[in-house]
Amino acid sequence: MLGERGTHSGVMAVRTRFRPDRGLTVRMVWTVFLLGLLYVLFVAALVALLKSVFWVVVIAGGLLFAQYWFSDKIALAGMGARTVTPQQAPELHGLLDRLCATADMPKPRVAISDSDLPNAFATGRNQENAVVCVTTGLLRRLDTQELEGVLAHELSHVAHRDVAVMTIASFLGVLAGLVTRFAFYSGLFGGRGRNNQQGFPVLLAVLLVSAVVYAVSFLLIRALSRYRELAADRAGALLTGRPSALASALTRVSGDMARIPTRDLRAASAFNALFFAPAIPSRASLAGLLMTHPPLERRVEQLARISREIGEAGR
Known about the structure:
The chain has helices at residues 22-49, 54-69, 71-78, 90-103, 136-141, 144-160, 162-169, 171-190, 196-240, 243-257, 262-268, 296-310, and strands spanning 81-83, 109-113, 120-123, 131-135. By secondary structure, the protein is mostly helical. The chain has a 4-stranded mixed β-sheet with strand order 1-2-4-3, with helices on both faces. A hairpin with a 7-residue loop joins strand 3 and strand 4 (131-135). Zn(2+) binds at residues 153, 157, 229.
């Protein structure tokens, strides 16, 4: 069953036939709210500890704007990807044309990264500037139905606008990191001979506050990241009506990832939050709290449950 119009606090106000995910919307709203509250408390603490944090906030704001506005260009450049026309990749464009028609949404730009790493991602600040990128490694390994499932998964990220929310949510972590460096170097090089004994406790306090803020924002963003992948799996499976094809793609991609050289996996891990499947797989343990994706087993189990619910075997 496909969805209708989502109008939740401006977070998801895009008209598509992707089924609205209220759980994802609530989590995005709460994550942004909690991070905003944490930001206010963080700035208040800095004002109390430091005489001025104006330039740090300005620089962090500039980085956020650049990351948000140019997110598609940054991601494509980082992956060495290029946009392709329907003449250059007719099958890929054909699949996206059919999926976008089914979902009743604008077609994003299409890009291909010349990498053996089997993966895909969607990025862009809105539907008009969205781009879906797949690697040549993914195209070689998946059949048509599996690739369709992956593309539907990525289109749901665009429809739900969770890519933009993740970009905005990362602002606080960037700010905390900048403040830590600013406080450390100003205390290290600017405090000598100027009542340095009083300045040292302030430096420690700033470092502690920044570390706590960074840790809390990191965990909130990772929790949202894991849920949004489950939401994209659900939405993609319901759009195509073939959860088993998406589960097969997940299993194939995760299995083939083990054959990729470790050096290449580590180099690509910076894009884990965007990827369809993580370059370094997550596991169901305490360390899973730090992962960008839920464990493969949980994703496959969810898809199997959806398959039973819609009666896929009898379609």
